[in-house]
Amino acid sequence: MKNWSSMRFGGKWKWSTVCAVLLSAAALLCAAPASADPTDDAFVAALTKDGITMSSPNTAITIAHTVCAELDKNQETSVVAMSLMKDTDLSLKQSSYFVGASMSAYCPQYIGHTDNSLNWLHPYNPVPQW
Predict the structure, then answer these.
(1) Domain count, the chain
(2) 105: domain range?
(3) Is 84 helix (H, G, I), strand (E, B) or coil?
């Protein structure tokens, strides 16, 4: 059985090699993903374009999925927008836009099934349809 603490590389310790390997491993473990999901990127870009900012992109994406979950429960879009407005610092217009952008990006099956009070809020689809 080998004693790893006494391993030598080519008869001499190659500390620079050992350090390089350890630093590379640490960099891989700590590195952020190279790119996010294109739908997520498009959704966050649509919010930014309309001046809507959240504490982080992940927060916005999580809230968007919550919007879709509420719609899955047959909640009216106007109620979802008002609830979003109450739970965040968004205006009614911004929260309505947020609901529309969420639907466009993550639950397009609900587009066209909104109550009439929010028909004006559907933004363009942030995800290009090729």
Answers:
(1) 1
(2) 38-121
(3) helix
